[in-house]
Amino acid sequence: MAGTKARRPSPKIVERWIEAGFGQGAGMAYKPFVFVRDVPSIGASNTVKSWATGRNHHYLSRQEFKVHLVAEYCSSILDIREQFALLPWDETQSIARQLGIKHPRYPATTTPTVITTDLLLTMKRPDGMELIAVSVKLTKDLEPRVLEKLLIERLYWNRRGIRWILATEKNIPNVRAENLLFFEMALNDDRATKSGVDPAHFSRQFEANHSPNRCFNNVLSKTSRDLSLDIQTGHALLGTAVWKRASRIDIDTARLDHRSPVVLISR
């Protein structure tokens, strides 16, 4: 569908969105129910290419984006589906009636909202696969009305025997998330591939140049010069090594900073 979705949709328009497959499917064929272009920009939306799924993902908040990065880094991730539609459409309306709460509506309309879950994860398990539904909120936003809407989501997934998680800034690995954000550009940057340098080799050189008293930028600059690379390519190579788990950079202990020393994982 070209352009943005209608801001004040009628039921017929919503039915067309559903028929078009938004918020449904899996893998590269999946289309989120809500794209970044569909909502007014508040400066917090992100689009990122996923190595796990091979497609671009759309996130409406920084917190959702951070949860995506943590999921992307997980070695057991098989699929990530953002803004997954809770269909059939009338089921969430039925749940709301049973709970005695108002079902959300599109602004300035009487049209019931198609409720979406922020991320639906498919995880590889020893005995097969597991689906995990994740709703993402900041604790400051957990007001009574928001909790009512989250209850609709939770009951929808409970009916299907699917684990539902409420992810806030208090229960996600924030240091890891921020450090993956530090190297996020490597997911979209082709300079590492074009350089012809093995990212793992670059990381080993970085580690050899490492000193507890040298800041990140200092070590990165020296390593890039040693291999006749510009610093941007060096950063892309190092980030690629981190994402591929081919680096000893510790992303869980302290937040990375261009002007601070780096912690390495012991051999």
UniProtKB/TrEMBL annotation:
Classification via Pfam families: Tn7_TnsA-like_N
TnsA endonuclease N-terminal domain: residues covered: 75-169
One function term, GO molecular function aspect: nucleic acid binding
UniProt cross-references to SUPFAM superfamilies, sorted A to Z: Restriction endonuclease-like
Superkingdom to which the source organism belongs: Bacteria
InterPro entries, sorted: Restrct_endonuc-II-like (IPR011335), TnsA_N (IPR014833), tRNA_endonuc-like_dom_sf (IPR011856)
Identification of the protein by name: TnsA endonuclease N-terminal domain-containing protein
Organism of provenance: Niveibacterium umoris
